[in-house]
Amino acid sequence: MDRRTLLAVTGWLATTVAATLVGLAAVDLAGAGITGTAGGVRTERDVARALAVPDPGAGGATSVSPVATQTGTRSGAATPTGAQRGFVTDGGSVLAECGPGGVRVVASSPAPGYLTKDADRGPDDHVEVRFVGGGREYEVRLRCRGGVPTRDPED
């Protein structure tokens, strides 16, 4: 092999190795943002504590059940009332909070096979989110009662 060919092969190998390492580093950085959990990982104790909080607006049986209640916002700063509460239906889930402007939807997520058809996210006197799919429809209407998001009695 002459010197020119050896130099070309060595240059090509060095470029290929550098490009591969840069690509792997980029995938590692992007992957951390994709697979990381936005709210962090909760321990079994955190989940048990959140589920142990009683439902202040519990009436009769409904297709929505509270899944969590917490005070404060994600950043830790307390809102005027700070009460957040989750509701789950077969069509999807809704997280709402009460504040000075009324109730507002913090997040909603349709269940697999469902879509969010309408969503009045507030803040307002009442908010609603409608999930549609598989020939079925689930509507979650919420109001603030005592500073805590609860199901609207009209629902």
Describe the model:
- By secondary structure, the protein is of the alpha+beta class.
- It has helices spanning 3-35, 44-52; strands at residues 65-70, 84-89, 92-99, 102-110, 115-120, 126-133, 136-145, 148-151.
- The protein has a four-stranded antiparallel beta sheet. A four-stranded antiparallel beta sheet has the order 5-6-7-8, with no helix packed on it.
- A hairpin with a 2-residue loop joins β2 (84-89) and β3.
- The chain is elongated.
- 19% of the residues are buried.
List the helices and strands and how they pair.
Elements: H1 3-35, H2 44-52, E1 65-70, E2 84-89, E3 92-99, E4 102-110, E5 115-120, E6 126-133, E7 136-145, E8 148-151
Antiparallel strand pairs: 1-2, 2-3, 3-4, 5-6, 6-7, 7-8
Strand tally is 8
| Biggest pleated-sheet summary | 4 strands, antiparallel
Q: What is the rounded Rg?
A: 25 Å
Strand order of the largest sheet: 1-2-3-4
Taking the alpha carbons of the first and last residues, their distance comes to 82 Å
What is the string of helix and strand elements?
HHEEEEEEEE
Structural class label: alpha+beta
Helical content stands at: 25-40%
Q: Name the average pLDDT.
A: 76
Report strand %. Answer: 35-45%
Number of helices: 2
Properties at a glance:
alpha+beta; 155 residues; four-stranded antiparallel sheet
Short description:
The chain is an alpha+beta fold. It has two helices and eight strands; from the N terminus they run ααββββββββ.
